[in-house]
Amino acid sequence: MKFKALLLACACLFLVACGGVDPDSPLGQRQALFKQMLKVSEDLGGMLRGRIAYDEARFVAGAAELDRLSREPWQHFPDVRDDERSKANPELWQRQEQFQQMARDLEQATAALVQATVSPPLRRSRLEPAVREVEDSCEACHKAFRAY
């Protein structure tokens, strides 16, 4: 009985150790940032689409947070593929110039979103296209460089 319990404990520890990504690794860092970006983006889109109650102050803060986050993941992409568990398409490392341009496009889109929030009252007619541009930037990069 003790042997079975010890064997089960070792198996569980082994699975836990092998299953995750080191949060301090480049892969772990960029995954965490992209998850944060997704959460903020979903909240902004949700407010405009009626899934979440619209709160102007929260929207403005979310736009600023998304703009800040949009500038961070790129430093965690090394010149060569660093982890086989990455969901990035191997072409990302071969087409760095295009990837970097798409990163800059996202940064410009989030900056434009922040700009759309600077003069109250905020109008959906200005916010919706800005949010759509951010979403389109994300989608374009995912289509080009994310392995699904």
Overview of this protein structure:
This protein has helices at 2-19, 26-49, 56-69, 91-94, 96-116, 124-145. By secondary structure, it is mainly alpha-helical. The protein is elongated. Helix 2 (26-49) runs antiparallel to helix 6 (124-145) and helix 3 runs antiparallel to helix 5 (96-116). It has a single domain, classed as Four Helix Bundle (Hemerythrin (Met), subunit A).
Keywords:
heme; 0% strand; metal-binding; single chain; signal; Cytochrome c; mainly alpha; disordered N terminus; 6 helices; Four Helix Bundle (Hemerythrin (Met), subunit A); elongated; 148 residues
Question: Can you describe this structure in just a few lines?
Answer:
Keywords: Electron transport, Heme, Iron, Metal-binding, Signal, Transport. This protein is mostly helical.
Topology:
Elements: H1 2-19, H2 26-49, H3 56-69, H4 91-94, H5 96-116, H6 124-145
Question: Can you count the helices?
Answer: 6
Q: Radius of gyration over alpha carbons?
A: 20 Å
CATH class wording? Mainly Alpha
Characterize the main sheet: none
Name of the CATH homologous superfamily: Cytochrome c/b562
Helix content: 55-70%
Structural domains: how many: 1
**Would you identify the CATH architecture?**
Up-down Bundle
InterPro entries: Cyt_c/b562, Cyt_c_II, Cyt_c_prime
Organism: Ectopseudomonas hydrolytica
Protein name: Cytochrome c
Pfam family, one: Cytochrom_C_2
